Amino acid sequence: MESELGEFPSLAILHYVNSNGFSTFPCGGTLINKQHILTAAHCVTGAILEKSGKLHKVRLGEHDLSQTVCTNGTCNNGVIEMDIEKIIIHKGYDDRSKIHDIALIRFSKEIDNYETNISPVCLRWIPQSPNPELLPTHNFTAVGWGRTLDAKRSNVSNKLEIPWYHHEDCKQRYSKVRINITDTQICAGGKFKEDTCDGDSGGPLLSNIDGCDYLDGIVSSGKGCGLEDWPGIYTNVTAHKDWIMENLKL
């Protein structure tokens, strides 16, 4: 389902440019303050850079890629593009298992002002519990520009409500394909044709509490897209609280 304009003001999209000057937007991110976003480590290292080229800028306030025109960082429709000063990748990141699939991107300067379409996500430093008695029917919202049912990436950001998937069940499921799920990850989804997919990587898994969107997960990996009883795997943001806070000071 398409999101509304300004519905998710913390949503970011990463702008890559290849050696031919061609722009692509294969990953998302989430604004956490005036100078930083969180994204997936696999969005800023490895295969994606070989395929899409250099990470050029971070775009904020985006909704419909087909309607936005940017020249030298100045865009229409209230969109802004931020230059990148530093990318910090978790030292424990493993490309195969996607453990610690998290990275922090620092802009070269702070955003001047928050707007209705650009503002930070809420962070809750209460440890996520895999106990189903605490989260028996919890639903998350994933947001991004990823591939949809017609096999195309969307120009407009989409949102999808997906259920929390029992942690122990997820561990057992992925052990069948020799992937070890840890407490630094969250599993969600597992319903046929309802999933995040290519192009959603690095984007947010949100919980709306009292009108505020809390960042619980970062789109990381999974087995295909939308396969029955194969949940998506998300980096557990709260489990990385200490790493985030430590690197915000650098």
TrEMBL record:
Q: Which InterPro entries match?
A: Peptidase_S1_PA, Peptidase_S1_PA_chymotrypsin, Peptidase_S1A, Ser/Thr_Proteases_Immune/Dev, Trypsin_dom, TRYPSIN_HIS, TRYPSIN_SER
Family per UniProt? Belongs to the peptidase S1 family. CLIP subfamily.
Keyword Electron transport tagged? no
**The species this protein was found in:** Hermetia illucens
* SUPFAM superfamilies the UniProt entry points to: Trypsin-like serine proteases
Chain ranges of the Peptidase S1 domain: 1-249
Per the record, the GO terms for biological process are: proteolysis
Q: What protein name applies here? A: Peptidase S1 domain-containing protein
Q: Which domain of life is it from?
A: Eukaryota
Q: Which PROSITE patterns match?
A: TRYPSIN_DOM (PS50240), TRYPSIN_HIS (PS00134), TRYPSIN_SER (PS00135)
Q: Which GO terms describe its molecular function?
A: serine-type endopeptidase activity
According to the entry, what is the taxonomic lineage of the organism? Eukaryota, Metazoa, Ecdysozoa, Arthropoda, Hexapoda
Locate the coiled-coil region(s) and give their ranges.
Answer: none
